[in-house]
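Supplementary Methods. Inverse-folding protocol.

Structures were first reduced to a discrete structure-token string of length 273. This string, shown here, constituted the complete conditioning input.
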């Protein structure tokens, strides 16, 4: 039985090091071109304004802005917001960030009342539960222009994997920037379409102290063919689009045994059409 909800939180001071690994292993410029293509080929309005839920350290947002979109990022983690704001400034792009928990409808509505309606919403690499995905889609529905889209990325098992077998695997990565480095030990446990991912970070902090910090994420594996029945979104409000397997990026962006795909919904309030 799956948990209904779980928290995505980070120990203090670790985001800077997590961001080094994001930069090194996740090919944002390549991935976001795929996202942009998906948005443009599936929306029935011209999408100019995008809202990104869980914008983290701003990497998707900067790439999407470079592709010409006006981008709004919603994020609740202060450290991430701080790093993202610096990164946006360095790149001199059109991205506005807001501190917001997108699962809290009142908080979200207050922020979106300032932002206004958007043409597309993206939820990329956010390890929340399926019911929270659904909640995010429902919460954002009224803030998407008709003919716009709501898009998420999901993981599915590679075809050669038996999803019913327990799998345990681990690996080790190193990333650095100009003045520091970090070692990351990843430990993955796969069972019942859930991946428990422990990432243990080892680094010297700004005071020269050796720190070991754990980030634990839970990923839902959603088989590509079952995404509709699992998410079960109201079909009069959202029309499901075809999914797209991301094969433009190297395999490093995924935990082992998984592939990544994008799926979206067209916002279609039947009454308004
Ligand atoms: C794994 S990170 C991914 C960040 C970014 N989307 C990327 O792909 O680089 C997930 C982010 O979602 C944020 N997050 C998770 N749940 C959230 C919520 N309910 N409201 C706002 N931010 C949330 C976390 O704080 C974290 O920054």
């Amino acid at each position: 039985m799956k948990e209904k909800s779980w928290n995505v939180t980070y120990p203090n001071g670790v985001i800077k090091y997590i961001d080094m690994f994001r930069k090194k292993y996740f090919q944002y410029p390549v991935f976001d071109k795929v996202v942009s293509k998906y948005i443009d080929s599936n929306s029935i309005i011209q999408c100019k304004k995008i809202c990104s839920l869980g914008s983290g350290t701003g990497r998707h947002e900067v790439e999407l802005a470079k592709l010409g979109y006006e981008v709004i990022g919603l994020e609740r983690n202060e450290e991430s917001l701080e790093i993202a704001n610096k990164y946006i400034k360095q790149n001199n792009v059109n991205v506005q960030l807001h501190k917001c928990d997108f699962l809290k409808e009142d908080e979200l509505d207050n922020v979106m009342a300032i932002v206004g309606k958007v043409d597309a919403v993206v939820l990329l690499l956010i390890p929340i539960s399926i019911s929270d995905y659904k909640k995010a889609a429902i919460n954002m529905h009224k803030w998407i222009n008709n003919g716009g889209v709501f898009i998420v990325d999901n993981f599915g098992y590679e075809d050669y994997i038996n999803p019913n077998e327990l799998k345990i695997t681990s690996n080790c990565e190193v990333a650095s920037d100009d003045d520091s480095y970090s070692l990351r030990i990843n430990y993955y446990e796969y069972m019942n379409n859930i991946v428990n991912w422990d990432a243990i970070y080892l680094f010297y902090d700004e005071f020269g102290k050796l720190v070991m910090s754990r980030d634990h994420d839970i990923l839902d594996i959603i088989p590509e063919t079952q995404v509709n029945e699992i998410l079960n979104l109201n079909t009069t409000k959202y029309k499901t689009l075809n999914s797209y397997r991301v094969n433009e990026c190297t395999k490093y962006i995924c935990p082992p045994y998984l592939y990544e795909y994008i799926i979206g919904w067209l916002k279609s309030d039947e009454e308004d059409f």
